[in-house]
Amino acid sequence: MESHIVWQNDRLRLLDQRFLPEKTAWIECVSHKDAAWAIKSMIVRGAPLIGVTAAFGCVLAADDYKDDPVWRRKIDAALTFLSKARPTAVNLSWAIEQMRPDIASVASASLLRDVWLEKALAIQKKDEEICRTLGKAGERLVPGKATILTHCNAGALATAGYGTALGVIRAAHEAGKDIRVIADETRPFNQGSRLTAWELSQDGIPVKIACDNSAAALMKKGLVDLVITGADRIAANGDTANKIGTLGLAILADYYDIPFYIAAPLSTIDRSLSSGDEIPIEERSPDEVLFLNDKRIAPDEVSAFNFAFDVAPASLIDGIITEKGILRPPYDASIANIFKDSLDA
Ligand code: MRU
């Protein structure tokens, strides 16, 4: 399958995830504003893919101002604009901050564009490699026969390829394990029923969709062996922001004594935040809840909550699966150590 994010003819081609699986439509970004819009409007989504898109958005920003006499100032402002496209996934600012220091050190905007294109392509390639490594690391947590519940879409579509939570699931399937997946529907954007179910069924991995409100009943019936989700931002103490509903799953898994794991690259860990209370939570338009396929499904006079993420406390997380191995509680220590080791390596 063609990748869902492709740099081609000086443009960024993106598979429009809003219409999957019904329609395969592509959009092209020709400026950094297009890239910011693609992130904001959920054409691309998922923390690592948002980061990769932002990296290419920087390339477009350098191109946008290549003939501007104050290109350094304009490009710096463009990067700040891009970094505000969505607030919760830290991979967005992570990718941009990989780029920003070059503004001061590179001699012209055209050279900067070339330097950043190389970097963006490397970030894209590395992201898929990280997912594959992380998948292998997490696979050993999965029994030979297991039903795994996952929430939202932390798959190939949410990354440069292979996925984080779905990376672990794919690796377990590839290792010959008998894996079944329960994909939470994930209202209101339906990343589970539209994207996760689509990806897994294309790979021949058995998957069944569950309404978001059925997790407790499924767990009580003994139908869930473990829960694995992705993450949008992990604080230094292990508290983890992910798609709204993840907190409920973590509480339920604890109640029913079911292992609950997070799978995420190290770029999703934000050590500048001491706890999950500091993670900014995106609030999206109530219309995403109030309308279905452009048809209003609620009374005209009633509004809706639409927090896009919640935070699962570290105390409910049995392990954080990363490309450097599985982090275990206490997370403040295991997170500090993994970064220390990564720097030493
Ligand atoms: O609003 P979304 O679709 O961007 O939310 C995505 C998630 O919550 C994912 O679980 C998370 O970004 C991890 S993706 C590997």
Span between termini: 35 Å
Tell me the domain tally. Answer: 2
Assign the structural class, choosing from mainly alpha, mainly beta, alpha/beta, alpha+beta, or little secondary structure: alpha/beta
CATH architecture of the largest domain: 3-Layer(aba) Sandwich
What general outline do the C-alpha atoms trace?
A: globular
Number of strands: 16
Q: Biggest sheet: strands, sense, closure?
A: 7 strands, mixed
The averaged pLDDT comes out at 97
- The percent range for helix content is 40-55%
CATH homologous superfamily of the largest domain - what is it? Translation initiation factor eif-2b, domain 2
CATH fold group of the largest domain: Rossmann fold
Radius of gyration: 20 Å
As residue ranges, the low-confidence spans are none
CATH class of the largest domain: Alpha Beta
Element pattern in H and E: EEEHHHHHHEHEHEHEEEHEEHEEEEEH
- Small molecules held by this entry: 5-S-methyl-1-O-phosphono-5-thio-D-ribulose
Q: How many alpha or pi helices?
A: 12
The fraction of residues in strands falls at 15-25%
Write out the strand line-up for the largest beta sheet, numbering strands in chain order: 6-5-4-7-10-15-16
